[in-house]
Amino acid sequence: xxxxxxxxxSGRFLVDTNVVVDxxxxxxxxxxxxxxxxxxxxxxxxxxxxxxxYASGVVANKKKRLKEIAYFLDNxxxxxxxxxxxxxxxxxxxxxxxxxxxxxxMMSGLLHWQ
Length: 114
Prior knowledge:
Blueprint: E1 6-9, E2 12-15, H1 17-24, H2 28-34, E3 38-42, H3 43-55, H4 59-75, E4 78-79, H5 83-95, H6 102-112
Parallel strand pairs: 2-3, 3-4
Antiparallel strand pairs: 1-2
C-alpha cells in the first residue's frame, strides 16, 4: 500500500505537504508507512510548511509548527530543485504519453538525480 498523497520510489517516500501535516497531526497510518522507508522532503514542501506556520494567527500555533518543521529538517533530507532537476522534468514531460501532474514530474527529477 502506498501512503496517500505521496509518491513511492524503490522504498523511498517523496512526501508532499499534506502527508507531513497528517504526520504532525499524529496520523498513525502515515507514521507507520513512513517508518518503513526513506523519507525525502522537496524544498517546495518546506516552503509550504513555513508559509502555513507564518500564516497562523495564533503565536503558540506558529511556534509549534516551526518546531515541527525543525524536527523534519533535522531528521530527513531536503531535495533541492536544480537545473538538473528541471532538465529531467523536461525530458520526462516530453517522453510521457500520459498526463502526469507537473509537480510529481519535477519531484521525480529530484529522486532520479540523487
